[in-house]
C-alpha cells in the first residue's frame, strides 16, 4: 500500500501500525470478493484496489481525528463500521466491467447500486458474525431484509454522514440481528 502522491499520511503509521492498516485493506478486499461471489456478480464487477486503499487511508485519518478530538484510545465498533461504510459510499470501489443490458439489470437490480449494497454489507460485517442469525421468526427476518433495502435506498439517494450511519448501527444494538463481534480499535 505505497502512496506516491503528494499527500503524506505518514502520521497514520505513527498512530496505527502498518500491520493494522494492511489488515483493514485486506479485510475490505476479502469482504468485497465474498460480497460479489455471494451475489453471483463477480463476472460483472471489478474491485478497484487503488480506491480501496484510499478508503482505508480516509477511514484511518477520520478515526485519528476523532480519537484526538475526543481524547479516546479505543474506537467503538459502530464508529468503525460507520466510517468504513461512509468512505465506501463516497469513494465507490466497485465498478461494472462493462455496460450491462436492461434485461440483466432487471434480473440483478443491485448491480446499479452495488457500492451502496456493499457499504451496508460492510456495516454488518464489522459488528456482527453473520453466520449466527438471531432472528426470532420469519417476520423478523422479513423486517431485517426490508430495513437493509431501505438502508441501501438511503445510501443511494440521500445525503449520508458517518454520524447518521453510526446512529443506524447503534439502533441495531437494541435488538441485534446477528451475534455481535466484540472488537474495538
The portion of residues assigned to helices is 55-70%
**Overall outline:** globular
Count the helices. How many? 8
Distance between the termini: 20 Å
Class from helix and strand fractions: mainly alpha
Model regions low in confidence, pLDDT < 50 over at least 5 residues: none
Radius of gyration: 17 Å
In total, the number of domains comes to: 1
Mean pLDDT: 89
What's the helix and strand layout?
Layout lengths: L9 H6 L2 H22 L5 E3 L1 H22 L6 H15 L2 E3 L5 H6 L6 H14 E6 L4 H20 L4 H11 L5 E3 L5
Antiparallel strand pairs: 1-2, 3-4
Helix pairs in contact: 2-3, 2-6, 3-4, 4-6, 4-8, 6-7
Notes on the protein architecture:
- By secondary structure, the protein is mainly α.
- It has one domain (16-180).
- It has helices spanning 10-15, 18-39, 49-70, 77-91, 102-107, 114-127, 138-157, 162-172; strands spanning 45-47, 94-96, 128-133, 178-180.
- Helix 2 (18-39) packs across helix 6 (114-127) and helix 4 (77-91) packs antiparallel against helix 6.
- It is globular and about 50 Å long.
Summarize the structure.
The chain is mainly alpha-helical and 185 residues long. Helix content is 63%, strand content 8%.
Features:
185 residues; two-stranded antiparallel sheet; 8% strand; two-stranded antiparallel ribbon; mainly alpha
